[in-house]
Amino acid sequence: xxxxxVELCMGTTCYVMGAAHLVEFAQNLxxxxxGRVEVTGVRCLGLCGNENFSGAPFARVNGVVVDAAxxxxxxxxxxxxxx
Length: 83
What we know:
It is a single chain. This protein is an alpha+beta fold. It has 2 helices and 4 strands. The protein has helices spanning 12-27, 71-82, and strands spanning 4-9, 37-42, 59-61, 64-66. It has a 4-stranded mixed sheet, covered by helices on one side. Strand 1 (4-9), helix 1 (12-27) and strand 2 (37-42) form a beta-alpha-beta unit. The longest helix is centred in the N-terminal third of the chain and has 16 residues, at 12-27. The N and C termini lie close together (11 Å).
């Protein structure tokens, strides 16, 4: 299986709304994710104006948007992908 790709939005709105704390996810990957998850910061996911999502900060896990992202919500999304 390819690595699960996690993209953290580091755009201004997401950063101010808490994305800075999401960097903890990358720095402290749970042991179950080590070697299985690739985390990157991206300039902007362009989702702030999308009414389908509840709000910043945003992340994407293998292309699936995680809105109002927290370390816990991102971890849950990664676990779903890993099965």
